Amino acid sequence: MASLPVAAQHPHHSQEPRSGALEHYLTQLAIWPDAIPAQVEHHLINVYFDNANRRWPFLLRATFESWHACWKKRSSDRDRPERERDLWQGFFVNMSFYEQAVNNYLPAVLRQPNRLLHVQAYLMMSIHALFSPSTEQISLMISSAVRYCIVARFHLVEAEPEPVDAASRLEIQMRRRAFWAAYSLDRLACGVLRLPFSIADDNITVPLFENIDDSALLDGSFVSQGSSAKTSVSSALHRERCFQIQSEILNVTMRADFAMNFDSLSDWRSYILAKLDHWRSQLSHFSDSDTKTPMHERWILIVYNHCLLYLHIPTKSNVRGPAGDWSVQASTQSILIFRKYQGYGTIPHPMLGLISQFSIGTIILYCLWATPPKFRTESYNSKNVIEAIRACSNNLAIITERWENTKDLSDIFELLATEIPLAESVSPTPTNPPLPNMNMNIHSNMHNHNNIHTLDNIHNNNIHTTTRTRTTYGESERAIKRISDEAARELRAKLPRVKSLVLNREIIRMIEEMMTEDFPRDHDYDAPGPTATQANTGTLDPSSSSYPSSGMGVGIGGGGGGAGGEGDKLDHDHLSATATATLPMSTHPFFVHPHTLPLPSPLHHFPSPYLSADGSAGQLGAMSPGQTLEFPGSLSGYDMF
């Protein structure tokens, strides 16, 4: 602050609280951006290129620094004839002050004949929108960037210039980088908010940008390091491939006829799982080694986990089958990974991260609400589910501190987590005497946003046990009939504001069902899925599920079975002998099984992203039925909370 002349003229500002002084300092910089100290400018440039540009590499740092140098020279030389001609550079240089950049310099950018500059400007505004508290602004700005790419024909390989010289080859690569940055932003936002894509994959003919370092682009050598080499864009390129797989999933699950024609099919899911497994096997090679960067392996795995989560949409009619078990595992894992990295202060897109965490936490609560104990698999009873609910509560409490208008998200989640029993017992039968029910609820004092809920205080204060389950022989009742009237009234009051933030109609549906309907009971739906006893004792028959297995004739059994067996295992000899011959081929043209892809996993096996990347990762026997995913190393205690 002492470096600013105005601050020196008003010594009383030093009496202000630290936050007020910082606000005053930033206000002055917005008025006189040329007063920013050189070291601050250098720091801001590093922050952008080390974080945002590593994920969306549509700018070359050397090119930006040349713009910055010209702009600084322009500011000190007011008589230069190029002053007005180079006004557009002020947009990129002054993006730290968004309103000033947009209001004063964006028109100058759009007056330039270079369409690449236009797209880069829209992408800069889209990245800025990721930090706004409005999901509508995020979706509209990203959609505008994609539409501008379409207008500029960046999505068409036939519209690219001929690669006759170094300048044209550089333009081709930068066009591709810009388009695929817009594509990944679009898939990120549309996946979280469940909105239609701004451009369909069938309309795209341009390939991904090449795995070439920025230096090779600028010196004109264009030496490709090959698909296996690691460059400055390798992690972003690998992330793009995962977004392409995510797009394939959402192209199916967002169809209007998905529930009727696709939800009960397994071949397309097997195909997707094979592609995801192949992608995951290469992740450790292309990701960053620094655990605190947003391109580290486990942070990129959030995109992978979202792909797994998008494979199923839990509803009251399918949650008792594989959809519920799958959703619980994918949701649990995504929340715990996010919590780990939030502890490092690494939240690359906080608003979408907030909506994503709220949505994923809601899915877990919905599965618990919609699935009677009789139909719950071991995944429901894992301690990781409780840990995920706690972690989600912390995640929401921390992020909603940024924006007052988002606190309803945290309030609604805490309300639902308090009302919905996180554990219920199966009803007694003549051969199974009654067992005490551990009905764990997150206590209402978690509504306090200023309290960061550690594992200790949740264990000591926020979890209580009851035995509220009413049971009869032959038919079980739920722990409670429905959420309380008081909770329902509070949910109704907050829901309109939550709808405007979440946008995802499936998540809104789940909240409305939990708010207005009774807890589903055993006989409410004719669920073909396994009971908890079947799933946990290895007697699950894939044919009994509404989701057929991958068609490979793989069952779960053997190993002695029953109470006296040593554990149920896959018959690997039978698998290897029959898998290739019976591999399902989809009748839909957009799903064709390439022979080069790894063997797809049966749907009753949830793939672990933490298996080794060598040949053992593709072995289905590496996981036992119902096995809970765990983080590698010493993270099983989640002491990072």
TrEMBL record:
UniProt GO molecular function: DNA-binding transcription factor activity, RNA polymerase II-specific; sequence-specific DNA binding; zinc ion binding
InterPro entries: XnlR_reg_dom (IPR007219), Yeast_MetPath_Reg (IPR052202)
Protein's name according to its UniProt entry: Xylanolytic transcriptional activator regulatory domain-containing protein
One Pfam family per UniProt: Fungal_trans
Keyword terms, alphabetized: DNA-binding, Metal-binding, Nucleus, Transcription, Transcription regulation, Zinc
GO biological process terms held by the UniProt record: DNA-templated transcription; positive regulation of transcription by RNA polymerase II
UniProt-listed SMART domains: Fungal_trans
Annotated CDD domains: fungal_TF_MHR
GO CC, one annotated term: nucleus
Record field: compositional bias (Polar residues): 531-541
Species lineage: Eukaryota, Fungi, Dikarya, Ascomycota, Pezizomycotina
Keyword Metal-binding recorded: yes
Region (Disordered): 520-569
Compositional bias annotation for Low complexity: 542-551
Annotated Gly residues bias: 552-565
Chain ranges of the Xylanolytic transcriptional activator regulatory domain: 138-215
Localization (cell): Nucleus
The keyword Zinc belongs to this UniProt entry's keyword annotation: yes
